[in-house]
Write a structure and sequence with these properties.
The complex is a heterodimer of chains A (361) and B (187). By secondary structure, chain A is an alpha+beta fold. In chain A, 20% of the residues lie in helices and 17% in strands. Chain A is built from 9 helices and 14 strands. The radius of gyration of chain A is 25 Å and the shape is globular. The chains are: A alpha+beta (361), B alpha+beta (187). Chain B: It is an enzyme of class 7 (translocase). Chain B: NDH-1 is composed of 14 different subunits. Subunits NuoA, H, J, K, L, M, N constitute the membrane sector of the complex.
């Protein structure tokens, strides 16, 4: 039985050791640790087979290749497509070279990006915005003309702003996954390359709306949500409905009492694990269509949590983490047997607090 | 015993007839009064005359137009999210074909409202604006109002009139990635 179970390999990322199955990528191992250790990813999307290795946002330094061959890798490697080896030592945010390279990557990605965030509907939940905010510079050095394309309507629901595209290929892989025939791809080379090729045929598919969620920037946007509101003024709520075609698990975005957008649910890495169908996404825009589960958890650093004074949105775990980190166990061997204070039974409170026995709402 | 040099010898001198009638004191008092008739006044008759409030005063909001008279605001909502009093609200709309001379970008604010009862004139909206669109005028105060329905200012009150343009020389304004044209043209 022992040999059937795969041998776990040990990797050290930013000084934190983690055990993963062989074949796992560095990025997945780092995500297992979580937090700041995980490198940013613009093109890699775990649910999409074959994605990754294009944007170079996740470059890390491998200080030791493996236990057998502890030489460092000569160049920075893309962590999303590099599998781990036993005894590998990876430096992510602890390495100065990685951080300066990442700054340059942000600059490269933004060279042809129009930076029309004040207009773009994706602003506030944009991967590129987050990436540039965390790793980039506040100014631009680029003075030349940026490439421009005409905006295109892809079917009745999706709009393509090719100017904003960073060519991550996520939508192409999504189209590959939802259709049998390849109908969606990238045409042209260099800065002339463009998401295209029979794209009108891909949108016939019942799951074509997922390219909107998958897009890390605002290149593919929801036409039913176009310029309706900014994301940080809307309130996301987890909801589900009985859908014959998909899982029906969605996030419903409210403005006041009005549903203005429906998206698939995203996990902490901003990835959709369960794709939803176009009926759920574009046509069910009434509260009566949905069974509300509760407010979506949003990280406190996100702008979506701005001006929403709800306790469940704000995670005050920093102090708790700090306290846990600085906690030292005190070896106290004094007799504590007499410290137990006899608790009054809830029945004793009944005359003064009649609701003391009620279960918590 | 003398403690300080400030002690004064009290004279018990008999006052003259004029002094007994307070004549020198009255003349002295009148002189002071008449002097003030000709002195420069320290107050101003406020509603008719207004003081210069300085170049950094934060007064009436204005939604700027650019050099060609197009509205700069793109309804990005950053002023509204920055506003600590939640006084600003807006509704965005898409620019139609043929409106290129009215609005600068493909999105514009169809409705832009500031509730002047809520506004605390902190100037955070001005700081947040990535398009240099909203400013608080240093030369104009928000007028007094008598009815509560007068306090919500819409675009009619806020958008800059082409006949009355507001120019603020702001040496600190820099080109931002979202507004690269701002100082590029200067150099």
């Amino acid at each position: 039985m022992e040999d059937i179970k795969p041998q776990l390999v040990k990797v050290t990322i930013d000084g934190i050791e983690v055990e993963v199955e062989p074949g796992t990528t560095i990025l997945q191992a780092a995500r297992k640790i979580g937090g700041n250790v995980a490198p940013p990813a613009m093109c890699y999307y775990q649910p999409l087979k074959g994605s990754g290795g294009k944007c170079r946002a996740c470059l890390v330094r491998v200080a030791a290749g493996s236990a057998k061959d502890p030489r460092p890798m000569p160049k920075l490697v893309a962590s999303c497509i590099t599998p781990v080896q036993d005894g590998m030592i990876v430096e992510n945010s602890t390495n100065e070279q990685v951080l300066t390279t990442r700054k340059a990557i942000v600059e490269f990605l933004l060279i042809n990006h129009p930076l029309d965030c004040p207009v773009c509907d994706q602003a506030g939940e944009c991967d590129l915005q987050n990436f540039a905010f965390n790793h980039g510079m506040a100014t631009t050095r680029y003075e030349e003309e940026r490439r421009t394309f005409e905006k295109k309507d892809i079917g009745p629901y999706i709009q393509l702003h090719m100017t904003r595209c960073i060519l991550c290929y996520r939508c192409v892989y999504t189209a590959d996954q939802i259709t049998q025939k390849r109908v969606h791809g990238v045409l042209g080379r260099g800065d002339a390359s463009e998401i295209s090729t029979y794209i009108e045929k891909a949108v016939d598919n019942d799951f074509s709306g997922n390219v909107i969620d998958v897009c890390p920037v605002g290149a593919l946007t929801d036409k039913t949500y176009r310029f309706k509101n900014r994301v940080w003024f809307t309130k996301p709520v987890d909801a589900h409905r009985d859908c014959p075609t998909c899982s029906g698990k969605t996030t419903v975005w409210y403005r006041g009492d009005e549903v203005i957008r429906v998206t698939a649910r995203k996990n902490e890495w901003n990835e959709v694990t369960e794709f939803i169908c176009n009926t759920c996404r574009f046509e069910k825009k009434k509260t009566s269509d949905w069974v509300i589960e509760g407010p979506t958890k949003i990280s406190r650093s996100s702008v979506i949590s701005a001006n929403k004074y709800r306790g469940d949105l704000i995670k005050p775990d920093f102090q708790r983490k700090l306290a846990a980190a600085t906690y030292t166990h005190v070896d106290d061997e004094r007799d504590t047997s007499q410290l137990g204070i006899q608790q009054l039974t809830p029945e004793r409170f009944a005359p003064v607090l009649p609701h003391a026995n009620d279960p918590e709402p | 015993m003398q403690l300080t040099n400030r002690s004064k010898e009290v004279s018990n001198k008999e006052m003259t007839m004029a002094e007994k009638m307070y004549l020198p004191a009255i003349v002295q008092g009148l002189a002071i009064t008449i002097k003030h008739f000709f002195a420069k006044k320290v107050t101003i008759p406020y509603p008719e005359v207004k003081r210069y409030l300085g170049p950094v005063f934060r007064g009436h909001h204005i939604l700027k137009r650019d050099e060609e008279g197009r509205e700069r605001c793109t309804a990005c909502g950053l002023c509204a999210v920055a506003c600590p009093a939640e006084a600003i609200s807006m509704v965005a709309a898409e620019r139609k074909k043929g409106e290129e001379n009215l609005y600068r970008e493909e999105k514009y604010a169809a409705v832009y409202e500031i509730n002047m009862l809520r506004c605390i004139f902190c100037g955070l909206c001005e700081e947040a604006c990535p398009k240099q669109a909203v400013y608080l005028r240093h030369d104009k105060l928000v007028p007094i109002f008598t009815e509560r329905d007068q306090v919500v200012y819409g675009k009619e009150e806020l958008v800059e009139k082409m006949s009355d343009r507001y120019i603020r020389t702001n040496p600190d304004a820099q080109a931002t990635p979202t507004e690269p044209s701002f100082s590029r043209s200067v150099s």
